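Question thread 4412

I'm putting together a teaching handout and wanted feedback from people who do this every day. The idea is simple: show students a protein as raw sequence, then show them the structure tokens that encode its fold, then repeat with a second protein so they can compare. Below is the first pair exactly as I plan to print it.
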Amino acid sequence: MRLRSRLRILMLRELLVPLLALLTIIIVGFVGFMVIEGFSPLQSLYVMVITFATIGYGDIVPVTDTGKIFTICLIISGFTVGVYAIGKISAFFVEGELSKLLKLRKMNKVLDNMKNHYIVCGYGKTGKSVLEDLLEKGFEVVMIESNAERNEKLKEVYGQKFIHIDGDATDDAVLIQAGVERAKILISVLSTDAENLFVTLSAKDLNKDVKVITRVAETNSTEKFRKAGADFIVSPIEIAKDRIISIATTSADFFSFVEFSGAKEELKSYKFGLVEIHEGSDLINKSYRDANIPQRTNLVVIGYYSSQSELQINPKADNIIQLGDRLLVFGNEPQIVALKKIAHHN
């Protein structure tokens, strides 16, 4: 609807105004010749056509001085308005404004049919890495970026590989255009905490089920993001701090293992997964020892999130799995899928 309104406004601005100007000149001239020179309607129309065609008069010419002055003004104004109208109409088609709107309309039709897709807000260093990884994995992605220079870079590098919206992600209308109401995950990596917080609030207001992953620069802002409804909050400072502590206090660093696994060809298919425990799963109210997740799926359970706590690394065998817990696991895709099935039902 918004696009149709823009198309109507563009048509009004670029085409209707010059056409109305031409029509006004024609009406003024038509009526003026009848009133001033006493021409019949047909004669008046005939003189109007000859005047606008600039081919000179023949059998019918203005006779009175007033008529001649009127004709001079009509020729000058008609020529001026004619040049203006031709320029406006030509620019409308030649400069591609109509083409841009038609492309936008086509893109919106594609967006209307998208669901369970990923929305990435911000094409900075982090956004670029996230985008490339999602595209490599074959996910449907919508990128939102407001910076003109970055938008040109996006067009140059990626072309038509994904949907790209030139707009402000903090604008509800832009999020709606990106299909946030049908999206699976929204990733906000804009340059400031304020922008990311605003996107989080807007996204959750428009779709309470969309999973929001956001970056936070200031650690004291984490609680605000949690209250805003962010599902996953990534703090580069906290990650760096945890790594430093891990390196300083352990001989075998977990992050070194991650880097090692990413470098080894045979482990390329392995990744981290987050599996939520749903109602009906036989894992509920079982200890990790009794759940036998490694034996049933060959997955390694690295940690878990509960509704009351942050990520708990290396759960103890006696810890009880609760409804709504999210298990952080490491394995390949089939293994993670197997655990997701168990997490949904018996």
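The second pair follows. I'd like the answer to focus on this one:
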Amino acid sequence: MNANRRPRPAHRPNARGCLAAAGLAALLAGCASTPPVPRPAPAIPAAAPAPPSTANPPPPTAWQDRPATPGVWRWQQQGLTSLARFDPDGGAPRFTLACNPVAQNLTLTLFVSATGDAPLTLATTAMTRTLAATAGADGSLHASIAARDPLLDAIAFSRGHFALLAEGVALYPPSWPEVARAIEDCR
């Protein structure tokens, strides 16, 4: 051993060790820090509730979007007359199609409380037409249509149901085979 050289004390760290320890301490300090606290969103002032509006009612729904009126169709033969009747409640009919084979026309009857003659509008997925209807003694509305009129085919083949509109009454009977039968019996 060299006499001029002093032995190193074992307790003194070298420069590399000091740098490694400082880096490790910095790394651990970064991991131990708490995440930033999110700032609360700015408060939005509460809007005063809008007063209910009666001036603008919702737009009317198209007749095709309305559900079919619940009920059943019944077909019956009365002499030469072929009759299809729609009963929503199982009682008195609300609408009938009656074939007059001699005159080759159908009479459409809507049972309402009509106060006089009024138009009867029929709407199908293929066409819409307004017919002149006369009031019966019982307040029903009657309209006649030729047996070969394309409106009758449009009623028979309307998708799902068709619409009858008169005197503030709207009826949406389903398109069932009884309707087509009364029409075909008249042709």
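Top answer:
Good format. For the second protein you could add a caption like this: The first strand starts at residue 72 and ends at 78. The beta strands are 72-78, 81-87, 95-100, 105-110, 118-123, 128-135, 141-146, 163-166, 169-171.
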